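Q: Got a minute? One more chain.
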Amino acid sequence: MANTYTQIYIQIVFAVKGRENLIQPKNKEALHKFITGIVKNRGQKLLAVHSMPDHIHLFIGLDPNISISDLVRDVKAGSSKFINESNWLIGKFNWQVGYGAFSYSRSQIDNVIKYINNQEEHHKRRTFKEEYIDLLNKFNVEFEEKYLFDWV
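A: Always. Here it is, folded:
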């Protein structure tokens, strides 16, 4: 749309189904490249991506031509298919239903990118559950813990 200008930065977090440790370090780079392609093909700008064995963080400069839920759906469906077709696992890979999406201002971009890229160190001190609940609380998102991810 002409004369429409936006600046939207969103961190998206979602987990492996059952919070199983299925994303192996040897496959992370290929997964990140594949997800980068999905995001770019949807006309969005990926600022950071980092996966842990049981979850993933994306940081996106979002163009409002797509909803966050549609983008997450495309990333989850495409990356699940990619993982399954790559035969990284015995059995079928799936992401859990749901995700977290958190908005940031331009002044926070560098800090969010550092936070996402430093996940290994970060998770030596805190579990994903602690991290996720802290994000929900930090952003004043009302939730019921029983409806969060299936915690293993």
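A: The helical segments are 25-41, 68-85, 109-117, 119-122, 128-138.
Q: Perfect, thanks.
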